[in-house]
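Quick board copy: two proteins, each given as sequence then tokens.
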Amino acid sequence: MKELSIFIDESGDFGAYEHHSSFYIVTLVFHDQSIDITKNIEILNLKIKNYGMPNYTIHTAPLIRREDEFFDLTLLERKRIFNAIHNFTRTSDITYHSVIVEKKQCINSYDLVDKLTKKLSSFLKKHMVFLMKYDRIICYYDYGQRELTNILITAFNIALTDVEFTKVVPANYKLFQATDLLCTMELLSLKIERKMLSKSELTFFKSARDIKKSYLDTVIKKRIL
């Protein structure tokens, strides 16, 4: 039985457009379960352990901004964690796609829901031949946003006759944390294009050039359109 796992995470909210919340991004990471990534996970866990860090659930946005559980960490410590999850994502045999909507182009939250649904449905339709190769497809999402949960269930069930949804605990799945990283990288790419990088992002990465050369260019190869 061929099984495909799809890990899903988002960046953004369904509130009104604001400068600090300009985009809504939904990232889907695809992993063929016949491809073993156990070694990649072991390397990531060992790196975090060797850095003397707890086995964090790596949320890259607060990691960059030095928030929540990362508040007491130095810049060097935070960059080590970021590099570890980035290397895991870069070396794992996965692909991804991001659905992106610029919120200022939406009249209201209903319009945002409409645009996200149409873009996701279009992507699924385009890649139906690939998806139909699998006997079992499981979508992993943390049900963090009710609106997105409804969009995902609707779009996937219209496109596919046999798809399962599982509520994921982020700490239990490194690929969910990789999805979080890819969401962040897509957002940073958009910010670079529009010269919107924040002070905390520039402090963490030093420059837009560093983001592109050291991080974005190495994972964007996994992107499917």
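And the next:
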Amino acid sequence: MGTAIVLLMLAAVIGIVVRSMVKDKKAGKSLQCGQNCKHCGGHCHKA
């Protein structure tokens, strides 16, 4: 039972992180470009 609880908590944390990354990408931010895709020299592409 403890393993299932830990697994669910880990899945929730991973889901939150992925959701945050998708939200940042849609807002034009990217970790590879210093959080500012306007000045990255074309390496970031908005989809």
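Board note added afterward: The chain has one helix and no strands.
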